[in-house]
Design brief:
Metallo-beta-lactamase, Chain A; seven-stranded mixed sheet; five-stranded mixed sheet; 8 helices; 15 strands; binds zinc ion
């Protein structure tokens, strides 16, 4: 079994998934997703995953064009293989955050468990696992357009989960790459640098985009429910205004969860 699961979504759009749910079950998600968007001139890899196994070999099976990484945000599970690529881009407000090497000792320990070891590539050494950092070669701002030749990705600043989180919109195919701002599962507006009100605003802004045919999220499955973003924005507003009731708060984590059917949102206490 391969560590990466690559699926063709539409012409020249591929999802490459990694099983983060086995390595870090505490986050309540199954996969972390990267997307390869192939143009005529070059390809974009939206996020680089956890940096485990040979992501470049997966890409070579699909395209020989030059590939640059477009990060949705700086978190380690989305930027883990950045250093393997010559070109990478991140929003201007996360350049400094991306420069800091994350503390991975808890994950190294988790990887020594036999059930976790079993899903890692055979030549992977858990004891040496780290997230090497490399400065981005391009700094993104809201409204930037990344041209790939024959198709383009629009940069939409969506702060809330993290300060410089961005979504990417491929208007031609209607694919909206939402990363950690919208997926089916627990979403986090409670991390250091998170901002629940900004998260709600970002969800509302994405829900107003015209021509969205599917959400390609940073975790779990593709979302084809056209109303998902509006439901999420409504849910965030209900949680912010006190109209929604949270689960009993987790005193130790200083967080509380609001559940809404197929997703939930975590707020600071
Ligand atoms: Zn994240
Ligand atoms: Zn994530």
């Amino acid at each position: 079994m391969s560590f990466h699961t690559t699926t063709r979504i539409t012409d020249n759009l591929y999802r490459i998934a990694e099983p983060i749910g086995i390595i870090a079950p505490q986050f309540g998600v199954t996969t972390v997703n990267m997307y390869l968007v192939v143009g005529n001139a070059c390809a974009a890899l939206i996020d680089s995953g956890m940096g485990i196994g040979d992501i470049r070999a997966e890409i070579r099976k699909i395209t020989a064009l030059p590939v640059s990484v477009l990060n949705s945000h700086y978190h380690w599970d989305h930027s883990g293989a950045n250093a393997l690529f010559e070109e990478s881009a991140i929003h201007e407000s996360e350049v400094d955050l991306l420069a800091q090497e994350p503390e991975m000792s808890a994950y190294r320990r988790a990887m020594e468990q036999p059930d976790v070891r079993a899903i890692l590539p055979p030549d992977f050494d858990p004891a040496a696992y780290r997230i090497p950092r490399k400065p981005p070669t391009r700094i993104l701002r809201d409204g930037d357009v990344m041209a790939l030749g024959g198709r383009a990705l629009q940069v939409i600043h969506t702060p809330g989960h993290s300060p410089g989180h961005v979504a990417y919109f491929d208007e031609a195919s209607g694919a909206l790459f939402t990363a950690d701002t919208a997926y089916c599962g627990p979403m986090y507006a409670c991390f250091a640098g998170s901002d629940p009100a900004a998260f709600a605003h970002s969800a509302r802004r994405l829900s107003a985009l015209r021509g969205v045919k599917m959400l390609c999220p940073g975790h779990n499955d593709i979302v084809s429910n056209a109303g998902f973003l509006a439901e999420l924005a409504d849910a965030m507003d209900a949680a912010l205004s006190g109209r929604a009731q949270s689960e009993p708060p987790n005193e130790m984590l200083k967080r509380k969860e609001f559940r809404f059917g197929e997703f939930s949102v975590w707020f600071p206490m």
